[in-house]
Amino acid sequence: MTADEFFAPLLTPSPKSEPLALSFSAIETFNQCPRKYYYNYVLKLPRGTWPWLILGTFTHSALEKFHLYVLWYQRIGKEPNHRELMKRAFLSAHRVYHRKRKSIHFDITEKQLEQSKKILADYLNKVLKDYPNNFPKTRWAEKRFKFMIGPYLIRGFIDRIDQLSEKHYEIVDYKTSSKTKKVDADFQVSIYAYALKRILGIEDDDDFKIDTKLDFVKLKKEEVGYYKKGRKKEVEEYVIDAGDRITHAKNTLKNEEDWEPIDNDFCKFCDFKNRCYNERGLFR
Q1: Interatomic CA distance for residues 47 and 199, integer angstroms
Q2: Which of 233, 242, 266, 271 has the fewest CB atoms within 10 Å, measured from its CB?
Q3: What is the spatial distance between Cα 215 and Cα 183, in angstroms, rounded to a whole number?
């Protein structure tokens, strides 16, 4: 054995195993269809460009920028002109889109831009009507979080966090879909509320309150709930159970055909339906 061969294992750092990274979207995708999870998160195939996804992404970007502008004005003690800030947010989102259009591989149409303008105008009118004298005090917009739950890394972004009082916060998640759903049935906002307590360093405080709201901006409707006491354990069990099932699948399913496809109402909108159908010998 040469000296180089003898010292090679000592000089070569052993690879560190990274924890499995999860998001609510990843968990929901696996629950919906393991084959779809495989295409999206293991093979990392290119995603589709659905019209409603393009509209939703653009509108989310404009709303994020709008509330960041308002937040800045609130911090420097300057009275904002909300309508002007919304126009600026729209134009800024449009500039960002044009700068990224070659890398994000989709084109937004004039019709979609007009739809987004209407959604944003209706959104602002509703907020100004609901809060005529006290515009929501936004603490964060598009707040990133990342932390461990058990052996798994959970991460994501929260659309908006408003501070209503010293111990009262509201989490807002924008939805641009054409259908509503109950906030208590949406585990996403529960994960967000759990994340907020981690961000603020709040453990057990009976006086601390978190409201959760799904804002269906396209429909001008809201579903409001709150983070119930005892929900922490449910969130942790939900994430760990999903992480265990995904880890088991990644360790035991070696080939594409091993990942079970589950036919459901979302198949016709799936980014990978053509590959999935072809692999399964289906032609639709």
Answers
A1: 31
A2: 233
A3: 10
Q: Which fold has domain 137-242?
A: Alpha-Beta Plaits (3.30.70)
Q: Report the DSSP pairing between strands 152-165 and 138-149.
A: antiparallel
- Annotate 40-97 with DSSP letters as a single string: IIIS-PPPP--HHHHHHHHHHHHHHHHHHHHHHHHHHT----HHHHHHHHHHHHHHHH
pTM: 0.84
Residue with the two structure tokens 């980014």:
271
Q: What letter represents residue 257's amino acid?
A: E
Contact 216, 180 (CB under 8 A): yes
pLDDT at 223 over 70: yes
The single residue listed with the structure tokens 């936004």 is 138
Domain boundaries, the chain: 50-135, 137-242
Report the range of poorest mean pLDDT among 76-85, 96-105, 148-157, 211-220.
Answer: 96-105
Taking phi over 0 as left and psi of -120 to 50 as alpha, with beta for the rest, 14 belongs to beta
Identify the CA nearest to 38 among candidates 262, 268, 278, 284.
262
Largest CA distance in the chain: 81
pLDDT score recorded for residue 249: 97
Is the CB of residue 185 less than 8 Å from the CB of residue 54?
no
Please report the pLDDT score of residue 35 as a whole number: 96
Look at residue 279 and tell me whether its pLDDT is greater than 90: no
